[in-house]
């Protein structure tokens, strides 16, 4: 059925994967969280010391939101390790570069 196919394709995107990684982190589902973070890591966009995620190859308005959910998922795990902090730092570096002069972000919720 095309409706089901379309619905499933909506669930198979970077935004949903990032949101699920954070949700499973909060729920304490470490194995599912790890699988989702591994999948996200494989599609991360690395720019030197910066790391982020996007829905499209050319960037999109959700990139800040997606990257923020990944950051939350990474920092939710306990105990936070130096490896996690280093990874999180790369995400924060990218997020800070996206801020406008007033400290906010454009086109995000």
How is this structure best described in words?
With 109 residues, the chain is mainly alpha-helical. Helices cover 61% and strands 6% of the residues. The chain has 5 helices and 2 strands, in the order H-H-H-E-E-H-H. It has helices spanning 2-11, 14-26, 30-42, 63-76, 82-98; strands at residues 45-47, 50-52. Strands 1-2 form a two-stranded antiparallel sheet. A hairpin with a 2-residue loop joins strand 1 (45-47) and strand 2. The longest helix is centred in the last third of the chain and has 17 residues, at 82-98. It comes from Cirrhinus mrigala. Pfam families: TED_complement. Residues 6-109 form the Alpha-macroglobulin-like TED domain. This is Alpha-macroglobulin-like TED domain-containing protein.
Map the helices and strands:
Layout: H1 2-11, H2 14-26, H3 30-42, E1 45-47, E2 50-52, H4 63-76, H5 82-98
Antiparallel strand pairs: 1-2
| Straight-line distance between termini | 32 Å
Question: Main beta sheet, described?
Answer: 2 strands, antiparallel
Mean pLDDT: 88
* Low-confidence blocks of residues: none
